[in-house]
Design brief:
The radius of gyration is 21 Å and the shape is globular. Helix content is 60%, strand content 4%. The chain has a three-stranded mixed β-sheet with strand order 1-3-2, with helices on one face. It is built from eleven helices and three strands. It has helices at 2-6, 8-20, 35-40, 51-59, 95-111, 129-140, 148-183, 191-228, 232-244, 250-256, 265-273; strands at 63-66, 76-78, 84-87. By secondary structure, it is mainly alpha-helical.
Length: 277
């Protein structure tokens, strides 16, 4: 997990940047629509979908269910053999269309999911790229691409606040523990207990880092893709690579294409562009 631990400072840095430069608020599209229009909205991105994606969608059609008994703001994803998207309303609104397209990316990504991190790489770093990219393309086809990032930056801001607390507590707790060791009479007789404490703390910070790193990196990579790829055929080919994911390692796939996220420069640039006034 050393690679993941090494990215913790990067995640902390961009978390602070988000908190210090809060993005503009996301305004939901609350115009009422029909469930038929919601379920048909993925047709707008049909030209971007390779046969590998179409086959998965045909084998795993998404159920869309509206119910006010869903106790959650926004949508709730239920994955499995029968992927279901739950919305907390009887009558749908336009916002649900982009959420359905996003969930479509979740289903495609999970068909050939990424491996978990190891000491040398983080294969799952870009696990949300497909979802973000499909949602962006859907909005772009309507001329609404400027509405893409505010929603996701708001979600990242929520994660950032929690991560800053976790990161600061982690370092504070370790410093306090080491101070206790210096003044204890038992010295290193309780080494097993100390190791267990350190292991527990490290496990917690690694988990917190991964929970932030995936959405941060996926957003940063998507922004790079949006900037670099303009031709539909090229985007379709890229989506095909990400869907098939033969090595279960989308990090390597995108790294081989020159997409890296160290420093989160694209994400910071977008934060500056969408900073709340």
């Amino acid at each position: 997990m050393s690679r993941l631990y090494g990215r913790s400072l990067d995640v902390y840095s961009v978390s602070k940047y988000l908190v210090d430069n809060k993005p503009e608020k996301h305004k939901k599209e609350k115009d009422k629509t029909s469930w038929e229009e919601v379920t048909e909205c993925p047709s707008l991105i049909e030209d971007y979908l390779p046969s590998s994606a179409v086959k998965i969608i045909e084998n795993k059609p998404i159920r869309v269910v509206g119910s006010p008994f869903v106790v959650k703001e926004g949508s709730l994803f239920v994955e499995g053999e029968d992927p279901t998207l739950l919305f907390p309303r009887w009558t749908p609104i336009d916002e649900y269309k982009r959420e359905l397209v996003y969930f479509l990316g979740v289903v495609l990504a999970n068909e050939n999911s990424d491996k978990m991190p190891n000491d040398y790489s983080i294969p799952c770093e870009f696990s949300s790229v497909l979802s973000l990219l499909l949602e962006y393309l859907y909005l772009k086809e309507q001329g609404k691409e400027d509405s893409f990032s505010p929603k996701h930056l708001k979600e990242l801001l929520y994660n950032a606040k929690k991560y800053i607390l976790s990161y600061n507590n982690y370092h504070k707790n370790l410093l306090n523990k080491r101070a206790e060791e210096m003044f204890t009479d038992s010295g290193y007789q309780d080494l097993g207990e100390i190791d267990s404490y350190y292991d527990r703390q490290e496990k917690d910070i690694l988990k917190a880092t991964l929970q932030c790193l995936v959405p941060y990196s996926s957003m940063d990579a998507t922004l790079q893709i949006m900037e670099r790829y303009k031709d539909k055929a090229e985007i379709k080919e890229l989506i095909d690579m990400l869907v098939q994911n033969p090595n279960n390692d989308r990090q390597k796939t995108l790294n081989d294409l020159g997409i890296e996220t160290y420093g989160y420069n694209s994400l910071k640039k977008e934060i500056d562009r969408k900073r709340g006034r």
